[in-house]
């Protein structure tokens, strides 16, 4: 029985450690929500799941150390629902970020972002006027567009240098006009009409060189935020999937050890001994 308790305690200790990357992912999403992604409610489910795993693991460790079967049972019961919640979060994260990505542009390294490439619940949430007023202000106040400026001895970089920069989705969608508008580059956040508009893109009329406006009202900016959210969620989801697989393995090990403890406490034989007890031999020496 002691070896089973030790196994459960060890499994719970490693489960506690596994809660750290989940909680860290939630905190990282929170930092992104306050700077670039600007959608602040998405990180809370992950933070709650991470804290729950920590608390449940501590209960399992205490149950193993003090040989308290109730705490061990509570650990198994609660961890089942925590794992289910993590699975649900991963499925939700992939479902709402399934569609949409940046488009390649000829002679450019950065991508352009278009709102109609995205769909679903996340798009509806970001484009809702009530939410977008807050998100747009957050993007502007984050200073993301100021940070893309580069000077070479006090002179802005050349158009060719800028065209071959790798911009983030928000930088590409919010800090410059869409490429198909035909604007001419002056510097990273100042562009002037320099040709005919290639397509009937409404964002072409919304671009403004006023540094407080730029393309924050553009659909491309909303698409850039969606693109940034997709990248953030996918990064965190990869970590969550790995942690989930390990959690399930640990859960199965802990469950098997707990059942072994119950057999010992109930004086139930295991394996062949159980068959021998059920069908005793009629031969005696």
Automatic annotation (TrEMBL):
Highest taxon, organism lineage: Eukaryota
BP term (GO), one: auxin-activated signaling pathway
Membrane topology of the entry: Multi-pass membrane protein
Keyword Transmembrane helix listed: yes
GO cellular component, one term: membrane
N-terminal signal peptide: none
The keyword Transmembrane belongs to this UniProt entry's keyword annotation: yes
Keyword terms, alphabetized: Membrane, Transmembrane, Transmembrane helix
InterPro entries given in the database record: TET_plant, Tetraspanin/Peripherin
Primary subcellular site in the record, as a coarse category: membrane
Residue stretches spanning the membrane: 6-29, 41-64, 70-96, 238-258
Protein family: Belongs to the tetraspanin (TM4SF) family.
Location relative to the cell: Membrane
Protein name: Tetraspanin/Peripherin
PANTHER family the record matches: TETRASPANIN-8-RELATED
């Amino acid at each position: 029985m002691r070896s089973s308790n030790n196994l459960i305690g060890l499994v719970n200790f490693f489960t506690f450690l596994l809660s750290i990357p989940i909680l860290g992912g939630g905190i990282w999403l929170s930092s992104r929500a306050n700077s670039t992604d600007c959608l602040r409610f998405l990180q809370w489910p992950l933070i709650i799941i991470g804290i729950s795993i920590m608390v449940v693991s501590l209960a399992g460790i205490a149950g193993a150390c003090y040989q308290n079967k109730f705490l061990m049972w509570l650990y198994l019961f609660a961890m089942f629902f925590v794992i289910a919640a993590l699975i649900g979060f991963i499925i939700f994260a992939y479902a709402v970020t399934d569609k949409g990505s940046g488009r390649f542009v000829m002679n450019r390294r950065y991508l352009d972002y278009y709102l109609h490439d995205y769909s679903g619940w996340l798009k509806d949430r970001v484009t809702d006027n009530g939410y977008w007023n807050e998100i747009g202000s957050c993007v502007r106040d984050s200073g993301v567009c100021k940070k893309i400026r580069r000077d070479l001895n006090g002179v802005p970089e050349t158009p060719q240098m800028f065209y071959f920069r790798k911009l983030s989705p928000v930088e590409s969608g919010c800090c410059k006009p869409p490429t198909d508008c035909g604007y001419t580059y002056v510097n990273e956040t100042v562009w002037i009409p320099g040709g005919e508009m290639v397509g009937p893109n409404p964002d072409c009329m919304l671009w403004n060189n006023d540094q407080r406006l730029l393309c924050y009202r553009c659909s491309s900016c909303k698409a850039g935020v969606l693109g940034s959210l997709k990248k953030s969620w996918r990064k965190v989801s990869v970590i969550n999937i790995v942690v989930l697989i390990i959690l399930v393995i640990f859960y199965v090990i802990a469950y098997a050890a707990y059942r072994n403890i119950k057999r010992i406490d109930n004086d139930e034989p295991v394996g062949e001994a159980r068959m021998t007890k059920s069908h005793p031999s009629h031969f005696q020496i």
